[in-house]
Design a protein that fits this description.
Blueprint: H1 2-11, H2 18-26, H3 30-76, H4 78-85, E1 90-94, E2 102-103, E3 119-124, E4 131-132, E5 139-147, H5 161-166, E6 179-181, E7 184-187, E8 191-193, E9 197-199, E10 211-220, E11 229-230, E12 232-233, E13 239-240, H6 270-277, H7 283-292, H8 294-301, H9 307-317, E14 325-330, E15 334-338, E16 344-349, E17 352-354, H10 361-376, E18 382-385, H11 390-394, H12 398-403, E19 418-419, E20 422-424, E21 431-433
Parallel strand pairs: 1-11, 2-13
Antiparallel strand pairs: 1-3, 3-4, 3-8, 5-7, 5-10, 6-9, 10-12, 14-15, 14-18, 15-16, 16-17, 19-20, 20-21
Helix pairs in contact: 7-8
Amino acid sequence: MAAGKRILDNSNPDTNQPNYKRMRSITPSFASVIKEAMKANFLENVSSALEPMLRRVILEEVENGLRRYSCRSLTRSPSLRIKAIEPSNLRLIFNKKLSQPIFTGSKVVAGGDDGQSLQIILVDTSGEGMVPTTLPYPIKVELVVLNGDFPSGDTETNWSREEFDKHVVKERTGKRPLLTGELNFTMRDGVVSVGEIEFTDNSSWIRSRKFRIGAKVVQIGNNQTTVRITEAVTEAFVVKDHRGESYKKHYPPALGDEVWRLEKIGKDGTFRKKLSSKGINTVQDFLKLATIDTLQIRTILGTGMSDKMWEVTYKHAKTCEMGSKLFMARGPNYVLILTPICQLVRAVIDGQIYPTRELTGVQKVYIQNLVKEAYDNWSSLEEVDGLVNEPALLTQGEPMVDEYPNVHQQQQPMIRSYQRNTILTDASEQLVEYNDWIGNPNYI
């Protein structure tokens, strides 16, 4: 009986004991749980309902504040208001086109043979044409590479700064910066020269396969003004790998250049091999034979060079720099003055000067044969300076002096000057193109 009573006592613990009361106070009641859940749900619903309303109210207040501030600023500074509304007529331009072709690792320079560097000029387009102008503060300019497709046309000049920046081309992943060198400089007095810049990668990997160079303003003075200056953009061009430079054509070619530097003649091509087999290795060799006998050089080149190809090659060759040297061919009774490509400048026969424009048909044939003979013996000709006068010409050798003792009494100057592809005749005192001495592609 005692054991059963103890078990019964243990199954009904005394509710008055302290531990039991603590346990009951810690355990939440069902009602309290429901109450807390309802509170949380209420707050969430209220927040969701108020959030859009609060956002709208805050946005309206911010816009009203900005509008009031903007109105006060424009009222105080009408000049700033005008600048913000009116488009700028100022723009940057490059002073000339680029020298092409352009190769990686080679300096990008201006075209032409005047030796001037590429420049960027500030111009005003408000009137007719473009007028160089200046600003009272320095302008910081940066060079960038653009896609060749921008702008869409060479006549398009109106674009936004955002459109310009959108077409800037960056280097390929893992490559060096696409354009290196002096890319940032300061313009003063409305002009600045571009320093040494070069490309590190070719242009074959972009869709247009061409680049342009752009010049944009990054800062004017100490940001005293926000006037818009339109960016400068070059013409589109191809950038080739440096390894192709050894095959580059020369513009213009030099007399001593190898003949494959001419258009349509490859370095290791058939035309070059055919010409070389006949001793025509340089541009000068090519032009001399083309002057004396066009048919012969066309025969050497063969039917593979069409008339159109020949015109391109010959036109390129004729842009060659002639230099200041002339060549003298002397015989028992004649003296011929020839250009470096075997064109006749003047003939003296039996002591009489024959300006080429005054030659009759018979005289032309006779002198043509003399010139061909001089061509065949080119290595034996005397090289003379471009400035040659008659006495100096006619006193070359004792036989000429003894045979024609009165020739020094003539008053006509022999050759007054020698310039690229031109001479000055004694009678007309005017410049005459060498091509005037030949009535057809052959010599005379």
